[in-house]
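In response to reviewer comment 3 from the previous cycle, which asked for concrete evidence that the modeling workflow produces usable outputs, we include below a single protein chain processed end to end. The sequence was submitted unchanged, and the resulting structure tokens are shown without manual editing.
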Amino acid sequence: MPMAQTINRTKPPETPPIPSFKMPPVHETTLPNGVSVVLVEDARFPLVSMRLSIQAGSKFDPQGLPGLAGIVAGLLTQGTATRSFRDLAEELTSIGATLSGQTSPDIFTLGGSVLAENTAKLLGLMADVALNANFPENEVALRKQNAKQTLRAKRSQTAFLAHEKFDALVFGSHPYSFVSATMESLDRMERNSIVQFRDTFLVPNNALLLLVGQLPPQPEMLKLVHHHFAAWAEKPLPAAPAKDFPGSRRQFVLVDRPGSVQADIYIGRLAATRTDPDFYPLLVGNAILGGGASSRLFLDVREKQSLAYDAHSELDRRQDAGVFTAVTQVRNEEVSRGVEAMLDNLSQMAQAPVTAAELTDFKNYICGEFLISLETQASLADQIDLVKTMGLPNDYLEMFTTRVRSVEPGQIQAAAHKYMNPEDATIVVVGDAAQIAKPLEKFGPVQVQKADS
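The workflow returned the following structure tokens.
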């Protein structure tokens, strides 16, 4: 009988080589009316995922109507000129399909999935919703009422107030500065403004149609696409918002929320986009600083100093600007130590190169997480959609792990000096000013502002 193998449990197992991602076959074409069509063969599952993505995210909300794009997306599937909401829901259920609208700051997406045998049926429903949504008055009123209830709930959360104020300071007058609708904008939204947004932005020369999965033969698939979308009328498009952002500078704002027993802390500034040479060094540096339970912020602020349940950093990657943010929440009596700990960790990222162990571990983490995210068909569709709608290189997905692995400590240090430097960071704290304003004065001038109602 062979002897049992001795396992060294004092060291974690070595990570096996992580492969690069290999794109499945892709076919691209453009309809005469301007719709970009991308067909991706993915035979792993008898499914098809569809995305109709349009350059019409929340940054295109009209002045005075933040949140309009999101309302339009939510209402798009509530009925068309030929189908009521119930008719649409029953047809989707009968073929085992999903179909819904959503928005990001940059992109408006109508997405769904279905068994491959029902691809033609879902494509027809998608086209009907995109071209013929009729926005019934009762559904508009209900959507606005629900949005107000959701907004009231959000505004009771200190994290939302901190995020709201932080984005307003970092993005300035750019539409990115709005994180949601307001009560005032919801009151002003009428069916006419909803229809006008749809008619202005949901046009074929502003759209990308992506289908991923077990598709019919290419000629048949393209014939279906032409049949459903060829009549969509091309229109001139308004210009996108100017990429006009304020320069990053040190500013400290305390949002007064009387009665809060803890303080939410947001620290950060504008950062690199996915197409910036600094992106990959910043991506890896952000993970080392605050990307999970092995990161510096978590191990220091939570494990070592016991100041918070969570401390992390984020890298928000938008089309026109990236944003780096370090986030935590601390008890009122620890607010000074909490801010100091966050600032110290930011400073240390630029003062010395990261260690070899940190670099290896977090490169493995980023690459592994990325590859796992491509295992499901829906995630694969989302990632390909991201490449196409955000103007990324065609090899972005295939080269992602290679570019992450090529990052060197000196590049991370340089990116940290540029984007994590506390000297030009925006600092937002939300809490009870009567309790925490005085301790925060040690960090320089603090502007105390009331929370918006």
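DSSP finds 16 helices and twelve strands in the chain. We consider this sufficient to address the reviewer's concern, and the full set will be provided in the supplementary archive.
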